């Protein structure tokens, strides 16, 4: 078996670089892409803008203070997506499978490619050159024994970087880096580790037995593996999800209008939560109704903009329900979302009400993630349970 080698390709200042390519007069100037309204945030800043201290996720108002002469641009996600697809196509010239992790980043397994290229570096240079030639954009690449290290390597020499972490050097390269560079170390875990005296990844490598466990519990085993640069996860080509749906066949056919509408509200809530979990939005909502006679009716409606909000999906599904004449009891209902796209809109692109709904939905997702589905639910679940109780 040849040694495994993983490459991580990461486009430099992707959105801003595309805008500079599309507007040659912006080359060499600070370009900031993001939401332009009052509460907007920066999606991407060109390297010229970064020199002013502007970075992604920063409030737009702060960026404008730091860089008043900057060129501020609203994102054009359809364009970025098409360039992203083009780059993935180029990567597929070099590997059978790639694993995109966002519009501008993807992993590929380049194990065994040494027969076609003299060195690992030559493979990296070839991909970077083809991307630059065909898209006019600059990529950084990292090559390493695994995904964790490859992603770290692509970040080490940006922009236009190509970094190789060889076998045997993993622990030494990681040792001086801060603990937050380990995957899975967010703010909370970082705080716990710092409080326990762990500042660098080397501190974790040298920890006394049990010390990391005392600081972070069951997460310790994984952190220690990563600290030594061990990560066995394979590159997995993302199978594209075409639709996300929820449906239910009832033990007793439904005749009550309120009950049918409540079921549709629940389907919508379930589907919306799944969309948000996969960071997707849907532009088409379909409603399926099967009657007692097994006659099945399906109706769809599409929107111009994608949504991941239960309220939007429910409203669409109820408008479809109104168009389906009901002459017999209902045996099954289902709501399916399709025409899926990546969730990329910054919150500021939504009108105020949507932004508020979105924040509320995210807050509920977070609470359910942490404390379970029953910790917080919308009212109709309760009504539904009350209705069902006597039947059970
Ligand atoms: Mg990038």
Q: Alpha-carbon distance between the termini?
A: 57 Å
CATH superfamily of the largest domain: Reverse transcriptase/Diguanylate cyclase domain
The percentage helix is 25-40%
CATH class wording of the largest domain: Alpha Beta
Number of helices: 15
Class derived from helix and strand content: alpha+beta
Work out the radius of gyration.
Answer: 25 Å
Which topology of the largest domain does CATH recognise? Alpha-Beta Plaits
How would you summarize this macromolecular structure in one to three sentences?
The chain has helices spanning 14-22, 47-50, 60-66, 77-91, 120-135, 147-154, 170-174, 187-195, 201-205, 211-216, 220-227, 257-277, 310-321, 352-371, 379-388, and strands at 6-11, 31-34, 42-45, 71-73, 98-102, 105-109, 139-144, 162-164, 243-254, 280-291, 296-307, 330-342. By secondary structure, it is α+β, with helices and mostly antiparallel strands. The chain has 3 domains: 1-167, 2-Layer Sandwich (Alpha-Beta Plaits), CATH 3.30.70.270; 171-227, Orthogonal Bundle (DNA polymerase, domain 1), CATH 1.10.150; 243-391, DNA polymerase, Y-family, little finger domain (Dna Ligase, domain 1), CATH 3.30.1490.
């Amino acid at each position: 078996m040849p040694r495994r080698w993983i490459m991580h390709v990461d486009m430099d200042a992707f959105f801003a670089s595309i805008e500079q390519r599309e507007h040659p007069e912006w080359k060499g100037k600070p370009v900031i892409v993001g939401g332009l309204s009052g509460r907007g945030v920066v999606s991407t800043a060109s390297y010229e803008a970064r020199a002013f201290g502007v970075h992604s996720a920063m409030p737009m108002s702060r960026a404008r203070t730091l860089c008043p002469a900057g060129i501020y641009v609203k994102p054009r996600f359809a364009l970025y997506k098409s360039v992203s697809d083009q780059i993935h196509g180029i990567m597929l010239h070099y590997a059978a499978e790639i694993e995109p992790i966002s519009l501008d980043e993807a992993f590929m397994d380049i194990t065994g490619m040494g027969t076609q290229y003299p060195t690992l570096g030559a493979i990296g240079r070839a991909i970077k050159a083809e991307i630059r030639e065909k898209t006019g954009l600059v990529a950084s690449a990292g090559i390493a024994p695994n995904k964790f290290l490859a992603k770290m390597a692509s970040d080490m020499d940006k922009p236009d970087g190509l970094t190789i972490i060889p076998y045997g050097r993993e622990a030494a390269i990681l040792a001086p880096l801060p603990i937050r560079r380990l995957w899975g170390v967010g703010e909370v875990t970082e705080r716990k580790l710092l409080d326990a005296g762990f500042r660098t990844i080397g501190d974790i490598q040298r920890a006394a037995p049990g010390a990391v466990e005392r600081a972070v519990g069951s997460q310790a085993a994984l952190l220690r593996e990563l600290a030594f640069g061990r990560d066995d996860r394979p590159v997995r080509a993302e199978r594209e999800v075409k639709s996300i749906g929820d449906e239910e066949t009832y033990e007793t056919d439904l005749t009550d209008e309120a009950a049918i509408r409540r079921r549709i509200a629940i389907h919508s809530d379930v589907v919306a939560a799944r969309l948000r979990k996969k960071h997707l939005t849907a532009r088409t909502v379909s409603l399926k109704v099967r009657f007692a006679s097994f006659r099945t009716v399906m109706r769809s409606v599409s929107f111009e903009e994608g949504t991941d909000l239960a309220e939007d999906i429910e409203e669409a599904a109820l408008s479809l329900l109104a168009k389906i004449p009901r002459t017999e009891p209902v045996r099954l209902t289902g709501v399916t979302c399709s025409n899926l796209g990546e969730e990329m809109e910054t919150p500021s692109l939504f009108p105020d009400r949507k932004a508020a709904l979105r924040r509320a939905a995210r807050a509920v997702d977070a609470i359910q993630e942490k404390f379970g589905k029953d910790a917080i639910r919308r009212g109709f679940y309760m009504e539904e349970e009350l209705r069902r109780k006597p039947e059970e």
